[in-house]
Amino acid sequence: MFVVYVFRGVLIHSTLGCLTICSLSCTVSSIPCWQLKQVREENRKVVENYTSERTMRKKYYNMVEDMKGKIRVFCRIRPMSRTEAAQGGAIAVGRLDDYSVTVETSRGPREFQFDRVFSGESSQEDVFQDTNRLIQSAIDGFNVCIFAYGQTGSGKTFTMVGDRDQRSPGIMPRAFNAVFDILQENATKFDFKVSVYMLELYNDRLQDLFVSGAEAQSRRVEIKRNRKGLVFAQGAETKEASSAGELFAMFQQACANRHNAATKMNVESSRSHLIIGIMVESRNLTNGSVSFGKLSLVDLAGSERAAKTGAKDDQLKEANSINKSLSALGDVISALSSDLPHIPYRNSKLTQIMQDSLGGNAKTLMVVNVSPSDCNLDETLTSLIYATRVKTITNIAQRNLESKEIAQLKEVRLIFFTLPFLFLQNVDKTPLLEDVMSGI
Ligand SMILES: Nc1ncnc2c1ncn2[C@@H]1O[C@H](COP(=O)(O)OP(=O)(O)OP(=O)(O)O)[C@@H](O)[C@H]1O
Predict the structure, then answer these.
(1) What's the predicted TM-score (pTM) here?
(2) What is the largest distance, in Å, between two alpha-carbon atoms of the chain?
(3) Prediction ipTM score
């Protein structure tokens, strides 16, 4: 029997690595029922194959970029907030697949590609799973930096720290556990020493979060670089940690000293950049070689527009300082992504402290956080464009490893030359000790 059917077919075409699907309507007459079913089934299979091929292609592309030393960028879209829903905002940002995000703009949809894309349904565990490899690198002697970026209220603190009562811990507390889990697994092969500093950059001033009150005000913390270009915080207290629990207790103490305030955009807005440095020194018990890794975890304060956040007086001053440092970070990223000969690291303390993570000797991961709502479309587009630029920056990560002989020579130099001098003179010992540690 012959009938007339109208059906939607799928046309697939490829242009220079960019695959698109478009649908076409066609009227087909005189096609038997069984044949139409067969065509539909074939179409379904083609789309399925195309989608999985596209995902694989992106995955392998990201792996190659990673091997080249490119900064990895994850994008996390948070769920719609109650305030956004109450404002009647529509969803304008969505995850297309594991590697792509689409944004509905007034000029039509715009697609961005990242190393991973997480939607509002993704759990803290999902986001952390892909960061575990970097924690291992820090223990192996690499410098690793994980930082969150995004407009105020986009979910940076949720991603890095977690929720207030730690029912959904973020990357920082999970990293503390992961560090000590890995150390525990290797306890028979290596001797480890873990030390940590916790700082905040507030109103362009670095503050040691291990101290509070008047002492915090009087303490001067400065950013220095050792001979290998590695950043360290001179004047900040460095504490040793022997378990994840101990590290977490230090972190809670530091968070209690951090500046937070309610703004129109976020009831608990971070008014400062939080910078945690976890140093892992490991001595190989078989060959005596020593490696030094540093894991930097950074929760940046959010970029914001004063009119939207309702900032006044002190909060306006804070917002200006936050925006100034983020703009300096933007300038560094632009210079690096355009391969300019001069990179303006010195324009802000934030860029100085992140100098070894951006274009330096580090394995770096940035998580760009965005809101799904069309109320925040401009800020979301700015963040995604910014993150796309970060993806083009190449770092040259090298393992900080020295042989048993070099490690012993350093000890000798420390014991016989530097320490006696330090005890005789009333001088700040941090730079000298750092010199000893950075190379003979
Ligand atoms: N993925 C998520 N799932 C559930 N809730 C989230 C998620 N991301 C963010 N939130 C919630 O959204 C609110 C704002 O998030 P958060 O404080 O992390 O933003 P922020 O980017 O750190 O803001 P600021 O820059 O102002 O400090 C919080 O109440 C947080 O719990």
Answers:
(1) 0.79
(2) 105
(3) 0.98
